[in-house]
Amino acid sequence: MKAFTYERATSPEQAAAAVAGRDGAKFIAGGTNLLDLMKLQIEAPTHLVDLQDLGLDKIDATRDGGLRIGALVTNTALASDDRVRAQYGVLTRAIVAGASGQLRNKATTAGNLLQRTRCPYFYDTNLPCNKRAPGSGCAAAEGFSRQLAVIGTSDQCIATYPGDMAIALRLLDATVETVMPDGTGRSIALADFHRLPGDQPWLDNTLAEGELIISVTLPKPIGGRHIYRKVRDRRSYAFALVSVAAVLHDDGTGRVAFGGVAHKPWRSEEAEALLPQGAGAVVERAFAGAAPTDDNKFKITLADRTLASVIAEARS
Amino acid sequence: MTPTGNDNATADNVTGSGSSAAGLAATLMPVGMEVNGMTVALSLDPRTTLLDAMREHLRLNGTKKGCDHGQCGACTVIVNGQRINSCLTLAVMHDGDAVTTIEGLGTVDDLHPMQAAFVKHDGYQCGYCTPGQICSAVSVLKEIAAGVPSHATADLTATPTVTRDEISERMSGNLCRCGAYSNIAEAMVEVAGAEA
Ligand SMILES: Cc1cc2nc3c(=O)[nH]c(=O)nc-3n(C[C@H](O)[C@H](O)[C@H](O)COP(=O)(O)OP(=O)(O)OC[C@H]3O[C@@H](n4cnc5c(N)ncnc54)[C@H](O)[C@@H]3O)c2cc1C
Ligand code: SF4
Ligand code: FES
Ligand code: FES
Fold first, then answer.
1. pLDDT tens-digit profile of B125-180?
2. How many Cβ atoms sit within 10 Å of the Cβ of residue B6?
3. How far off is chain A from B31, nearest CA to CA, in Å?
4. Would you give the DSSP letter of residue B93?
5. DSSP 8-state code for residue A156
6. Which of B10, B13, B27, B47 should one mutate to test binding to chain A, selecting the residue with the greatest count of A CBs within 10 A?
7. Are A1 and B22 in contact (CB under 8 A)?
8. Nearest to B99 by CA among B17, B164, B34, B3
9. What are the tens digits of pLDDT across the range A196-239?
10. Residue B29: closest CA among chain A residues belongs to which residue?
11. Over chain A (316 residues), what is each successive 10-residue block's mean pLDDT?
């Protein structure tokens, strides 16, 4: 690990200003992704601003019947919340499908949204990677791409967003609230939060330098059957090859989002309108324009079969 | 990622020797914690993980370093009542916290019930993963009792119960190269039964 200095922030505004005002400064929340990457020198911040004292660890009801989740609420606390379990079950299901009990006790809502890709070449500092070292090339293009994205890719990067929680948040139309270094705030729809790699694959999301996430808000509950189905190489403690988050209603309508297939949670409102016609129609529309590699084209078949089994489960 | 448990192998991570190329001299920071019921005051390079603080600075070598990347669970300790991977957190982030390591759960003469059950059921072979397994196992039973859901919980609105499926899912963050999994589960079932 490279040397860095450390401070504990005292207010959201102070935290944002502390990071924006200093080259190489970064926020640290649970630390489970950032420290992992710092040990490999993929991230090398010179200053860390710890967010744990900001009081952003509460889940409050909103006036329009939703929930505002503090950025520092842990994955365990969020998954365990009675309101979330009863009314946003797909969110609890997605969280507990990820990582391990130890990691979820430390991982936070904001940190989880901002976790970086698991592309093996992003982790291997001996090889080119446009996300880690802009302009160096993409080792995955000619390499092993079984885990990587099938849609929304660019010729510069085919990495995925690897997380589970964000797939459920996208399905639930969550928004992300932030504070800017100048003290102003804004709200970003989860749909617009993560980016596609395009020709700037080093940018994972649309946050500005020093912009601090203070909360994630869920609109009021939408009812329905909540299902999160994650397909992976081992039964637990592994990232998704493909995951399906769904809320399905008795009349056959509903919502569906896919994980493990793109640089962001993959949801197409046009495609989910075809849910009454079955999984095949939805997947055909959602993955129209997909550009899989030979190694990962199985993911589209897998998405189809996984969604079919989710629909069958909802009907049973 | 060979588990070494060797002081020399890990000392590098504590001092980060040779890696202050950024020109930043490592400034030591005060860290106060309650470790296994004892108040400790340390002066640490901010890079020091909680794991290295336990092993290298407090000489509590029970907690093990397996992967140093959150992938094996050997470093599991209990902080403010919750199990975490001590390799993926900085000691400075725990100023003011209460830490329990395997040394704090029980002693040779006065084993924690989970330690006794591991002995009885042969819940280990080489023993390298065992301190992390035991810290995790104790916490898993508390998490189930507190109603924390898992991937194996069928009904999210019901209180989870101690089943084999719940145990293996919740213990999946603790790897064992010797494959003692089924005996670990036996030990946990026995302790859970005694508590119920
Ligand atoms: C072995 C292993 C297995 C895993 N498996 C899974 C899995 O199956 N599914 C899954 O979804 N995840 C998995 N994870 C990833 C894990 O969920 C993330 O590491 C965790 O959620 C990150 O949260 P954190 O609070 O620790 O983030 P940190 O590491 O503290 O921060 C991550 C990033 O977010 C930034 N940040 C943090 N908080 C804020 C804020 N409020 N505003 C702005 N920026 C902020 C930091 O600067 C940093 O860049 C796994 C991790 C490991 C190590
Ligand atoms: S796919 Fe993206 S993250 Fe992976 S090597 Fe290519 S540029 Fe890097
Ligand atoms: S040493 Fe492997 S998880 Fe910490
Ligand atoms: S007992 Fe040897 S690794 Fe678990």
1. 999 999 999 999 999 999 999 999 999 999 999 999 999 999 999 999 999 999 99
2. 10
3. 12
4. G
5. T
6. B47
7. no
8. B34
9. 999 999 999 999 999 999 999 999 999 999 999 999 999 999 99
10. A6
11. 97 97 97 98 98 98 98 98 98 98 98 98 97 98 96 98 98 98 96 98 97 98 98 96 98 98 98 98 98 98 98 95
Facing residues of A247 across strands?
Answer: A226, A255
Distance (Å, whole) CA A87 – CA A315 = 19
B69 with A36: Cβ contact below 8 A: yes
User: Which burial class, exposed, middle or buried, applies to A242 when counting CB atoms under 10 A from its CB (0-12, 13-18, 19+)?
Assistant: buried
B1 token code pair: 């990622």
Rounded Cα–Cα distance for residues A169 and A188 (Å): 12
In the structure, what pLDDT confidence band is assigned to residue B194 with cuts at 50, 70 and 90? confident
C-alpha distances (whole Å) from A292 to each of A119, A158, A288, B150 are 15, 9, 11, 33
- Indicate the class that CATH gives domain A5-52: alpha beta
Radius of gyration of chain A (CA): 19
Which one of A8, A22, A33, A58 would you pick to mutate in the ligand 1 pocket, going by the greatest count of ligand atoms within 8 A of its CB?
A33
Q: Do A46 and B22 touch (CB under 8 A)?
A: yes
Domains of chain B: 25-104 (3.10.20.30), 113-195 (1.10.150.120)
ipTM of the shown complex: 0.97
User: Maximum distance among all alpha carbons in chain A?
Assistant: 58
Domain limits, chain A:
5-52, 225-315
Rounded CA separation A151/A159 (Å): 10
Tell me the chain B residues in contact with residue A238 when contact means C-beta distances shorter than 8 Å.
none
Q: Which atom of ligand 2 is nearest to the CA of A128?
A: 5
CATH number of A225-315: 3.30.390.50
